Amino acid sequence: MEFAIPPDLAALRAQVREFVDRELRPRDEAIEATGQIPAEALRAMADRGLFGTNTPRAWGGLGLGMLGNCLVVEELARAHIAYFYTSSMNVH
Question: Whole-prediction pTM value?
């Protein structure tokens, strides 16, 4: 049984990790201070298709399966738990 992450999903995870470290983590203090995710962070997430990651591409999502969705959500949650809760919503 193979437990390795497929190369395409490993690449996606690396891209999301870089985005999280560059764009989202610096806004963690603002979330703690205001109780809200800054609008620019939400726009940046939407621009990358990070809402509805398992929503089919035909409906505007990334069309990821369970593993891909879990990898993306895990990376988002590394910044702030608010991103985890927000990522499953399908708003833009």
Answer: 0.85
